[in-house]
Specification:
This protein is mostly helical. The chain has helices at 5-26, 33-39, 54-77, 82-96, 99-107, 112-135, 141-162, 165-180.
Length: 183
């Protein structure tokens, strides 16, 4: 029985949701076909109708998560001051789990295509932030965007380990104030 494209798309999205949930819980390297398919409510045999390999699944999961995060960041950055973005980002972490934080430590162990995908999305986020900072008249917007991303990721990594988030947020607020001050 052949399925229509809409069904195939819904099935692929269910597999990606299952992979995302497992990846956030245990990391990208822990993804394997059987648990992902079980989580999606599908049989193991259907996997290869949607992905060529486990590595393809990992790349697709990474891409979907980072694409969603970059889009959410871009939307938020046009709404208000950078300080509000920082607050939103730290709050976003509580409800969505930051994909950059979740997968950054594993990126170096991905295959070449996976590393390239991760790096491309990081640079895409950097460009979005750079544009927002330049529009606000911040000196050295690219350098500031990279520093902001590094500080946010570092803060969230520590916050996950050291709770509470409020203490980490206070520290990052001080860093952000220094990063975005105008000359």
């Amino acid at each position: 029985m052949r399925y229509d494209e809409k069904h195939k798309s819904r099935t692929r999205q269910a597999i990606l949701r299952g992979a995302r949930d497992l990846a956030h819980a245990s990391g990208l390297e822990s993804l394997s076909v059987e648990p992902v398919m079980r989580r999606a409510g599908l049989t193991h045999g259907g996997f290869y109708n949607h992905f060529r390999s486990r590595a393809d699944l990992i790349r697709a999961t990474l891409d979907a998560e980072l694409e969603q995060q970059v889009a959410a960041c871009a939307k938020q950055l046009v709404r208000g001051p950078i300080g509000e973005f920082v607050e939103w980002y730290l709050t976003y972490e509580k409800t969505h789990r930051c994909a950059l934080v979740a997968f950054a430590s594993e990126a170096s162990r991905l295959d070449k295509a996976g590393r390239s995908e991760f790096a491309g999305r990081v640079w895409q986020l950097c460009q979005v932030m750079e544009d927002a900072l330049a529009a606000r008249g911040v000196a050295n917007p690219r350098k500031t965007a990279l520093a902001l991303i590094a500080n946010l990721i570092g803060t969230l990594l520590l916050a996950r380990a050291l709770e509470p988030l409020a203490e980490a947020k206070s520290s990052v607020d001080q860093l952000i104030a220094r990063l975005i001050k105008k000359p």
